[in-house]
Queue: 4 jobs
Job 1
Amino acid sequence: MKASATCTICPKGSACPHPSVEAAIACPAGFYTAETGYTSCTGCPAGQICAGGIADPVDCAVGEYALGYASTCETCPAGYYCSVGSAPKICASGTSSIAGESECTECPDDSGCPNVSDKTTTPCGSGFYQLGTSSAPICEKCPIGHFCDDADKAPVPCSAGTYADDYGMTACTACTTNVCPFTDAVGYDCPAGYTANMEKTGCFAASATGSCAPGQYAYPNTAPCVACPEGFACPMASSPPRLCPKGFYSAASATTCI
């Protein structure tokens, strides 16, 4: 008699996006999972850093900051103050700070405060986005799982089937393996007997969809094929049924809503 397979709970610090994956995927730097049994890694919160793997988020020290998805803390720049868990904030008029401060101090009556707005600045370069004021910007490197093609705009998350596995990316990379379930890491190939779904976010049993008729589906690993339920559409056997929008309907085994 053939022995049955034993499923193992996904360990802390890793993600298991699909049962067909032979080994858990360790969370990259800037991400974590708080417990076991996660299907994806969580981005490190602002004000904390995550080394990746089984490491828990760690608070940045006083006078430092991290904006999220970070693996290292940055020193608060001069002319700004950094509260725990927040982005650098510019000192108010009549106050100043040196680098690494958590608060600004009042300037002596007999001396003027350095005016941050008078500083000569250089626009943020490619792969960065801008914080602070336009006259005194703070240039932050684009986080993992995002791209930054315009420093004046916020980082843009990668879409399904693409990824950015490093900081400072100006574009997301199209998935070249079978699937890319995470937008922050390189994907992997489906194991033997499985193939990628249309969105390249998971694997399903290849044999299950080969004989599916129109209006049937086999996702992610159903065999034999299953008829599309009433009120849903199944245009692709490799994708789950899609709920008909308001004002539309479908009979069972439909490929489109009408």
Note: The CA atoms of residues 13 and 55 lie 7 Å apart.
Job 2
Amino acid sequence: MTNSSDNSHSSSINGGNSTATGKRERWNSYSGFVFASIGAAVGIGNIWRFPYIVGENGGGAFFLTYIIVLFTFGLSFMMLEFVVGRYYKTSVVESMKRIQKRFRYVGILIVGITFSILSYYLVILGWILSFFFLMIFGINLSFNDYTNSLFPILSFLGISIINFLIIKTDIRKGLERISKIAVL
């Protein structure tokens, strides 16, 4: 008799969360997994700040260095993350601890870094959300006036709640569906 968790190595689109019944969530489609991975790998920084950084640091020379680092380190670490996640099927802290007990602290560091990056992204997404609604309602507000108002706090809370609801929903109905829309 074969258990569904025994067959999880046969598909590269397994989800990482367990439901209340203990059954492992799965991606509905390969494209959903790919779009979620692209969204996580590219991020806002590469779209929002990248052109500015390239211009400030020498244009083509910086771009070439960036591409080399991206494909040597970025791709390697992303593949390592996928392999470790698929092998241990648990949190990053527990996975690192299983590799070697003292690596638990590396897992905690990874969680801390991820939390910091998420906080930064939530602020930027909150600004985007705020200015989107200000534009719809025809409110013209300078960035200085905006930062001195309650809009940044309200938009941060709003985007945090939206993110929570997406993540709280199962993989297929939440993250996969939103990733397909957001990446395209």
Note: Residues 32-183 form one domain.
Job 3
Amino acid sequence: MFYEVGIYNAKKKLKKILSSQDLSRRYWKKIKEQNMGLNPGQSKIKSLSAEMRRKLDAQIPEFLPH
């Protein structure tokens, strides 16, 4: 549950009021965006070029397959 929030400017005048419904929508939108980042769809997965793979392997040799 979210409570209504007032946003004030530097002169302490009420600038905007966010309703509990707006806050709830904003919260769940952020959660959905974060979940998409954890399990990206096929369109979000990018493959590495051979040159980039060689550079990364040179920086982190312990991750190379034996």
Note: The longest helix spans residues 20-38.
Job 4
Amino acid sequence: MSDFIDARDRALELVQDGFVSTEDMLTMCLKFMSNDDVAEMLELNELSESFMDDPNYPYETEEVEE
């Protein structure tokens, strides 16, 4: 059996269990990440200025029928 603990899961558990607030965890993450990391994260999640300036944003998602 592996004792590997995903640090991302642990960080989420700390928030869910009330050891740290969501805002504090976000602040810690953003201060740890480089500016380029944050910019890439925003871009990948369609939250960068290039998406915000698009008059069609937010985009409607199509539901996929199974």
Note: The longest helix spans residues 22-32.
